[in-house]
UniProtKB/TrEMBL annotation:
This is RNase adapter RapZ. ATP binds at G13, L14, S15, G16, A17, G18, K19, A20. Residues 8-161 form the RapZ-like N-terminal domain. GTP binds at D58, T59, R60, S61. Keywords: ATP-binding, GTP-binding, Nucleotide-binding. The keyword ATP-binding applies. The keyword Nucleotide-binding applies. Transmembrane segments: none annotated. Residues 168-286 form the RapZ C-terminal domain. The gene is rapZ. InterPro entries: P-loop_NTPase, RapZ-like, RapZ-like_N, RapZ_C.
Length: 308
């Protein structure tokens, strides 16, 4: 059997953004992992062995220099027999501040302190130092609103060593008020469909329940939309695969992320799987309790969302 190129991942990013979690997941997938080695021995680490390799690098690494690291990334990308990727983990500043507060760990670039404005200064300094790496990354993963199980699933879908070739598809349902999934490649907005939220008997249910399915699918626009959406996906997916794309994230959103988007995501995942595609399904906001929404205010918010 002909072996594919050896995966070599350089994992970097902001302190507190999840680099260690990414490395642990990769280790579980069979990668040899090394965290914060001296940059001078990176070439030696790559040359020693042929197993999938993941190397964690950040501002704590001895001899850290973003320009020198970028030069090494360029060399690795040109190396025959190696599939090199630069992965950059990031998160929003308030999230990083909260994480440092909860763990009571000192930020590596904070000037002599661990909390408050000193951590903020450390985050800013680190972001500036790592900016060239973020710009050159093959994948930037924002963990601000990403629970650890979902982060693991994203890593597994992208980097699981396996013999099966082809396109891996991730389908994510979500609610617009919490923002678009940052990893989304394609986004479908299904807020035009009938909203079960306004029926008190249906509100506590989710898009996985048969009464919700019956309610939404009774909308006269559902079947024409479904036919066009699935037709478009069936047109695009083989083309993405032919161009060598290895993973695609399709996000489906509604107002709350519990009813319409969940139903359509479930239906789409099942449909694509029946056609032979590898599909992973995540309901990002399904656990969010149904909000108390007034008709006028929700209508206004949905109208604003459509025009933004």
């Amino acid at each position: 059997m002909t072996r594919g190129p050896r995966p070599v991942l350089l994992v970097t990013g902001l302190s507190g953004a999840g680099k260690a979690s990414i490395l642990r997941t990769l280790e579980d997938l069979g990668f040899e992992t090394v965290d914060n080695p001296p940059l001078q021995i990176l070439d030696e680490l790559v040359a020693d062995g042929d197993a999938p390799l993941a190397i964690g690098v950040d501002t704590r690494s001895r001899g850290f220099d973003a320009s020198a690291l970028l030069d090494q990334v360029v060399r690795l990308r040109a190396e025959p027999g190696i599939a090199a990727n630069l992965v950059f983990a990031t998160a929003e500043e308030p999230v990083l501040l909260r994480r440092f507060s909860e763990t009571r760990r000192r930020h590596p670039l904070a000037p002599g302190g661990a909390m408050g404005s000193r951590v903020t200064e450390g985050i800013a300094r680190e972001a500036a130092l790592l900016a060239p790496l973020r710009d050159a990354a093959d994948w930037v993963v924002d963990t601000s609103e990403l629970p650890l199980p979902e982060l693991r699933r994203l890593i597994e879908r992208r980097f699981r060593p396996e013999n099966a070739a082809g396109l891996a598809i991730g389908i994510v349902s979500f609610g617009f008020p919490k923002g678009l999934p940052r990893e989304a490649d394609l986004v479908w907005d299904v807020r035009f469909l009938r909203n079960p939220h306004y029926d008190p008997a249906l509100r506590p249910m989710t898009g996985r329940d048969a009464p919700i399915a019956a309610f939404v699918e009774s909308d006269a626009t559902f079947t024409p939309f479904w036919d066009r959406m699935t037709g478009m996906m069936e047109l695009l997916l083989p083309r993405y695969a032919a161009e060598g794309k290895k993973y695609l994230t399709v996000a489906i959103g509604c107002t709350g992320g519990r009813h319409r988007s969940v139903l359509v995501a479930e239906r789409l995942a099942s449909h694509l799987a029946s056609l032979g595609w590898r599909v992973d399904l995540i309901h990002r906001d399904l656990a969010t309790p149904p909000a108390i929404q007034g008709g006028a205010s929700v209508a206004g918010r949905e109208a604003l969302s459509h025009t933004s």
